[in-house]
């Protein structure tokens, strides 16, 4: 389940970036009630992108900002409460990592869903049912 953290360059140290990404991973697993599931843990992946100052804009003007984008299959975070929980935790995590150098209102998050059968791991297409089976099998192991 890819997470993309995009931030203004220099906003977070390398250590703070790693801590933030680990926190985002833990938040996704926790909200999904899948903490400790080997299949899910191994498949929460992602990237951190640092954009040069002046290349991140709000209202058409340069700002320090952060964006958290989460890509999921349709079977994940299916309730409004789960979505709210993850988005709130994600904002808290990034805000804390920034140590006061980032306004909360300059942290944006979104969740994008892949269509049924549009999820791939290791070159294999997974349906929602396939993912459920892989998660359950991993928990039973």
Give the SSE map.
Layout (H helix, E strand, L loop, with lengths): L2 E6 L5 H18 L6 H5 L3 E6 L5 E2 L2 E2 L3 E8 L6 H19 L8 E8 L4 E3 L2 E3 L1 H13 L1
Parallel strand pairs: 1-2, 5-6
Antiparallel strand pairs: 1-5, 3-4, 7-8
Could you explain how this protein is built, in words?
The protein has 141 residues and is of the alpha/beta class. 39% of the residues lie in helices and 27% in strands. It has helices at 14-31, 38-42, 80-98, 128-140, and strands spanning 3-8, 46-51, 57-58, 61-62, 66-73, 107-114, 119-121, 124-126. Strands 2-1-5-6 form a four-stranded mixed β-sheet, covered by helices on one side. The chain is elongated, with a radius of gyration of 16 Å. The two termini are 21 Å apart. The mean pLDDT is 92.
> Mean pLDDT, rounded to whole units?
92
Order of helices and strands: EHHEEEEHEEEH
Order of the strands making up the biggest sheet:
2-1-5-6
Low-confidence stretches: none
The shape is elongated
Output the number of helix runs.
Answer: 4
> Structural class of the secondary elements?
alpha/beta
Proportion of strand residues: 25-35%
Protein name: Phenylpyruvate tautomerase PptA (4-oxalocrotonate tautomerase family)
InterPro entries: Tautomerase/MIF_sf (IPR014347)
Question: Which features characterize this protein?
Answer:
141 residues, alpha/beta, four-stranded mixed beta sheet, two-stranded antiparallel ribbon, Phenylpyruvate tautomerase PptA (4-oxalocrotonate tautomerase family), Tautomerase/MIF_sf
